[in-house]
Design a protein that fits this description.
- It is a single chain.
- By secondary structure, this protein is an alpha+beta fold.
- It folds into two domains: about 110 residues, no CATH class; about 140 residues, Glutaredoxin.
- It contains 14 helices and eleven strands.
- The strands form four sheets. A five-stranded mixed beta sheet has the order 9-8-7-10-11. Strands 1-2 form a two-stranded antiparallel sheet. It has a two-stranded antiparallel ribbon with strand order 3-4.
- α2 packs across α3 and α4 runs antiparallel to α5.
């Protein structure tokens, strides 16, 4: 993964309210401006409402307005910011509609109730995604596309992601974000049907070494999940029923949990959901590497291009991926059930 560079600098504001910021950027860059007193300590929540995000790019730009009225601050000289304002305008009414739900989600402390509230946002997300996708296809030279794709990549089908990337000009493809997007596409492809499954070895939940290579000759389902993932846990009874139905016909399951930072919760969830009958390993998450933008070949999720959970990947006896289910890059759980039934019989 190509590392992005983050710069933090402070500048004084003159008595007349003027200030000047200088620096070098090679391409449009997302920036955040925070107005505060020199010794002032502000909370993360206050920081959110006291910052102004905008795009800077090579050239001279001017920011005007009252720092006490951040929403009305205007920047001129940035073509990229004009494009961002254009996109924001197209989605503004939808965001206004979903704001009460977001406020309720922010206040809810119960994990399962919060998950139910989060589900209510899906129709709004779908409408916004449609607008953004149209924007991506009509703005192939805009850096906004790459910046938005960082978070949109998990909500789009692989063919749609490829269409957006292929439409970008060469200058965007050569940026850090452009190279990152190409890398993510390759990882998703590597974890899709038709490709040989990436081999990994890991100590399992009992401390015994487990290697995917040892499962050759069997159909193996990789179940990407986490103890904190409500939909994952809700799907455990169904996964258990499938396992019991096909386990004597050459079928096995390896649970890959996103619980590296709290393994005790992982072990507790396995016991509570009674899924210890199959194999379990941790994904190999390393937050320090993620923060530094360093690739982590030990991270199983990264090897298979996993962006959301639950996701399941079915591997045939020869080690080839024949199905992907649960995320936007593959089929549904119903498709998974049908494929297993076609392999093993009802």
């Amino acid at each position: 993964m190509h590392r992005q560079k983050y710069i933090h600098e402070s500048y004084p504001i003159a008595l007349n309210g003027e200030f000047t910021i200088t620096g070098d950027v090679s391409h449009p860059t997302s920036s955040t401006l925070l107005f505060k007193n020199k010794a002032e300590v502000i909370s993360s929540r206050d920081r959110e409402v006291r910052t102004k995000n905008f795009y800077i790019e090579p050239g001279t730009m001017t920011l005007t307005g009252n720092p006490n009225m951040l929403a009305e601050l205007k920047i001129t000289g940035s073509k990229t910011q004009i494009e961002k304002d254009e996109l924001d305008k197209q989605t503004a009414s939808i965001r206004a509609e979903e704001q009460p739900i977001i406020d309720a989600l922010y206040k809810e402390k119960d994990h399962e109730k919060a998950s139910a509230i989060r589900d209510q946002l899906d129709p709004f997300k779908a409408r916004i995604k449609k607008i953004k996708y149209a924007f991506f296809l009509t703005h192939p030279t805009s850096y906004i596309v790459l910046d938005e794709m960082r978070v949109m990549v998990s909500d789009m089908r692989l063919d749609s992601i490829q269409r957006v990337y292929n439409g970008l000009n060469s200058a965007l493809k050569e940026t850090t974000l452009g190279k990152n997007l190409a890398t993510e596409i390759n990882k998703i492809e590597a974890g899709s049907a038709g490709h040989m499954a990436a081999i990994f070895s890991r100590a399992d939940i009992n401390g015994k070494m487990l290697s995917l290579a040892d499962f050759k000759g069997k159909y193996v389902m990789l179940d990407f999940w986490a103890s904190w993932c409500v939909p994952c846990r809700q799907g455990s009874p169904h996964m258990l029923a499938l396992y019991n139905k096909y386990k004597n016909k050459g079928y096995d399951v390896i649970g890959i949990a996103d619980d590296d930072t709290k393994p005790e919760l992982w072990k507790g969830a396995v016991a509570m959901d009674k899924v210890g009958v199959w194999h379990h390993v941790l994904r190999g998450l390393d937050m320090d590497k993620i923060r530094k933008g360093i690739d982590n070949p030990y991270d199983i999720n990264s090897l298979y291009g996993i962006h959301t959970i639950p996701t399941k990947i079915l591997i045939d006896p020869n080690g080839k991926i024949i199905g992907r289910f649960g995320d936007s890059y593959g089929g549904s759980d119903e498709d998974m059930d049908k494929m297993l039934a076609s392999i093993f019989g009802k």
